[in-house]
Specification:
heterodimer; A: 254 residues; mainly beta; seven-stranded mixed β-sheet; 5 helices; 16 strands; globular; B: 293 residues; alpha/beta; eight-stranded parallel β-sheet; four-stranded antiparallel β-sheet; binds flavin-adenine dinucleotide; binds flavin mononucleotide; binds FE2/S2 (inorganic) cluster
Chain lengths: 254, 293
């Protein structure tokens, strides 16, 4: 179990990697040692907003302790966060949540990402390399300009789908996924609609699938009870019990 | 900074506010405990799933919540990591709707050696939808609770609408050891895209900065009416609000939803109070308690 901390981190790199999407690299003032799929709550110091916002750990460097987050602009806090300048400090809480169940993973792995749901997978892939026999990434976006451009990892097969059809397949990533039966483990992160479609289309794959969920969060740790979901084994909290859940536990519209 | 109420010594005048602090947050306070007491999430007799749909939304100056008292029921209560907290009092928060329920809360308090209770009178009655504005309607229940918890320190937590002279007098007469003010304030919000209420239950509880000046007035009012100790709650984000509450007459001050976004706030607040006391030559908070009337 990683110990969660409230810490400060300096911004050491920032670049636009797709439309409305920024990659931000931070040097924390403490060792955070997250596991892939965990998230952080972030806010700038003296923020105009009352709450921090959740962001997945996009990448973690074991040697330096630096980490990256990938931020898609929404409105309020994401604008404030992405206007941080080099060298400025940002406040975080984390690492939080459980992360993807990567222990003992081998065989064929599929990753299904929709939109900014791609965020946790850079670090997941780093951890899977050398263990999985093959990794197929299915990545869907609205249109080409939103696709995170540098998405060309070596040793990974990438299948792209866009709603507009200006890159890859026109339509859902699930169209490319076909039966999915060849995979030993499937990891998902994306909009609720993608997950719902997956659950309806592939009920038989739920036993080997894990999905990272989103919800409104105030505390990110399990205190406010605001991120409740209903699962087959009762009420769970996305921040504390997740954000990654076995798909077999999930209820459509839970 | 020590504060004494009914024989209980609080190392600092800072408490957590019910429903905003859970054992998971103890990680942040491993090396330093800024609180003199920790008020636990309100428990009811029966388990409650709470509300559905969106449960939390940030608004300007605060937070709306529609959690709906989700809890496992007092019989399932587990103290967990709070058992390891040595230097802060653990305060059980209870919403009791019927005399028959009191025994279960008593058992839990005994089992874990809990010496203080905050009775949440500001949540909607189990039968009705609204909070009871006139506590005379539950006089018998209040008397029974205080007699069962005779030895313990019992606070009654009120909402803004319940801060009335008649209610305060009744609580003081019944032997309550303090009044906590205020709980969240009923509020609502609209989603203009959906042309609908944001929350399924329409109304939600407002907390955060916006509450401070309302709660401050409540403290002033109560101190005007009664000698009962006041535990102030609402909109604390720095030591300044804490000092204002104490000047208004509060014994203890709770930090609520601020802690979600800033777990470090209690440290800054504790340091801020100390620095203020030093700068102003104050050795004991009693010197300024209730100084503004
Ligand atoms: C576990 C988890 C991991 C996430 N990882 C990433 C990531 O890596 N990159 C990324 O760009 N985004 C991520 N998000 C989503 C991100 O948290 C929201 O986009 C962000 O909070 C929006 O903030 P805002 O103030 O700019 O948006 P607002 O303008 O306030 O609202 C826009 C929308 O953002 C969402 N939102 C707002 N506040 C919250 C909140 N407190 N909690 C959750 N959602 C909220 C709501 O859907 C809202 O409608 C993640 C969310 C969760 C729950
Ligand atoms: C998410 C949330 C849950 C809460 N749950 C409870 C509760 O169970 N019992 C209670 O008496 N008050 C509850 N409250 C109210 C707080 O204890 C406090 O009275 C209120 O938030 C005002 O203080 P603040 O402005 O410092 O947050 C809750 C508040 C929030 C934000
Ligand atoms: S965000 Fe507070 S409990 Fe999950």
């Amino acid at each position: 179990m990683t110990v969660k901390k409230a810490f400060s981190a300096r911004l050491i790199e920032k670049k636009v990697v797709a439309e409305e999407t920024l990659l931000m690299k931070f040097a924390p003032d403490t060792e955070i040692a997250p596991v892939p799929g965990q998230f952080l709550m972030a806010s700038v110091p003296e923020s105009r907003f009352f709450l921090k916002r959740p962001f997945s750990v996009h990448f973690y460097y074991e040697d330096t302790g630096y980490f990256k987050i990938l931020v898609r602009l929404r409105d309020n806090a994401t604008r404030e966060l992405t206007s941080l300048r080099y060298g400025e400090a940002c406040d975080f809480i984390g690492p939080l949540g459980n992360g993807f169940p990567l222990k003992g993973i081998e065989g064929k792995v599929a990753i299904l990402a929709g939109g900014i749901g791609i965020a946790p997978f850079a670090y997941v892939l780093k951890s899977l390399k050398g263990r999985a026999t093959s990794i197929d990434v299915y990545y869907g976006e609205r249109e080409r300009r939103f696709l995170v451009e540098y998405w060309r990892w070596s040793g990974v097969n990438t299948f792209i789908a866009t709603d507009l059809g200006d890159e890859g397949h026109k339509g859902s990533v699930l169209d490319l996924f076909k039966t999915g039966r060849e995979y030993d483990s499937i990891f998902l992160c994306g909009p609720g609609k993608m997950l719902e479609a997956f659950m309806k289309r592939y009920p038989k794959l739920s036993g080997r699938s894990s999905a990272s969920l989103e919800n409104y969060m105030a505390c990110g740790v399990g205190a406010c009870k605001g991120c409740k979901i209903k699962t087959k084994s009762g009420i769970k909290y996305v921040c504390r019990d997740g954000p990654v859940f076995p798909v077999s536990e999930l209820i459509v519209n839970g | 900074m020590r504060t004494r109420i009914n024989g209980l010594n609080f190392r600092t005048p800072l408490l957590t506010a019910s429903g905003t602090f859970s054992e998971e947050q103890l990680d942040f306070y491993r090396n330093r405990m800024p609180f003199g007491g920790i008020v636990l999430k309100t428990h009811t007799f029966l388990p409650r799933d709470g509300n559905d749909g969106i449960l939390i939304k940030e608004v300007k100056g605060g937070l709306l919540n529609s959690i709906g008292l989700a809890n496992c029921g007092i019989k399932q209560f587990k103290i967990g990591k709070f058992s390891r907290v040595a230097n802060a009092h653990i305060i059980l928060s209870a919403a009791i709707f019927d005399e028959k329920e009191i025994g279960a809360f008593r058992k839990t308090a005994e089992k874990y050696g809990i010496k203080a209770l905050e009775l949440n009178l500001s949540c909607p009655n189990i039968k009705g939808k609204d909070v009871i504005e006139d506590l005379r309607g539950i006089k018998g229940l209040l008397e029974e609770i205080k007699s069962v918890f005779r030895e313990e320190t019992v606070f009654a937590k009120l909402s803004y609408a319940q801060v009335k002279k008649g209610n305060i007098d009744l609580l003081a007469k019944t032997g309550f050891n303090g009044v906590t003010v205020i709980n969240t304030v009923p509020a609502c919000d609209i989603d203009i895209g959906k042309k609908a209420f944001v929350f399924e239950k329409k109304f939600a509880g407002l907390s955060g900065d916006l509450l401070f000046n309302m709660a401050l007035k409540s403290v002033i009012d109560i101190k005007r009416w009664s000698g009962i100790p006041v535990i102030a709650c609402g909109g604390v984000s720095s030591h300044i609000e804490v000092i204002k509450y104490i000047m208004a007459g509060a014994h203890l001050v709770q930090i609520g939803s601020r802690i979600f976004g800033d777990p470090g706030a209690p440290f800054k607040i504790e340091d801020g109070i100390k620095a203020y006391m030093k700068e102003n030559g104050i050795r004991d908070l009693r010197e300024i308690r209730g100084i503004v009337k």
